[in-house]
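Form 12-C: Joint structure prediction
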Amino acid sequence: GNSVTQMEGPVTLSEEAFLTINCTYTATGYPSLFWYVQYPGEGLQLLLKATKADDKGSNKGFEATYRKETTSFHLEKGSVQVSDSAVYFCALSDRLGSGNTGKLIFGQGTTLQVKP
Amino acid sequence: DSGVTQTPKHLITATGQRVTLRCSPRSGDLSVYWYQQSLDQGLQFLIQYYNGEERAKGNILERFSAQQFPDLHSELNLSSLELGDSALYFCASSATGGGVETQYFGPGTRLLVL
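Section 2 - Result
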């Protein structure tokens, strides 16, 4: 079945450090890939997405490239800020496998803590 | 603010009871999704509705049911509650429910079963 695997957290970085959060997936069809972020006490917000192979999603300095050959969608940011502290979720929507229903399958989430 | 509203924000109840969680989607969105977030299971898809009709079902227990009304708001009914049902329940909405769309999440309802 479809699944998403994220690197274990928590990840603790100093401000202005480089961030990578690894995400790999298994899917039967042609998935769209998403990164969602959850700030403390809030719901999830879309951070970025990519809908086909080699697409790069980007937003607020974060980037991720849809790599079909390695089934990966790693999240990167060149210089993190304290305000980036949150839980990050990688997710997929398998249009073919789920009949284009939009059902999201999430990874387990990675907690990022950025220290000043 | 995502535009998705959920009520109540917090709910404390006892085992064996029944509760109803309510969700109003973003204006113009026809599809509503329900997800459960718990420490042991993570974020799991429960069910999706599109324009009043059930579109997809995930790991939703038989004790749970949902519906989407003509005004597009949705309710998730949880009955015969058990301690393990304690979780954060999110509602999300999207325009037409397709796989490439962004889903907009509400702030969640935190359910505690004692």
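Section 3 - Comments
The CA atoms of residues 9 and 109 of chain B lie 5 Å apart. The two ends of chain B are 31 Å apart (CA to CA).
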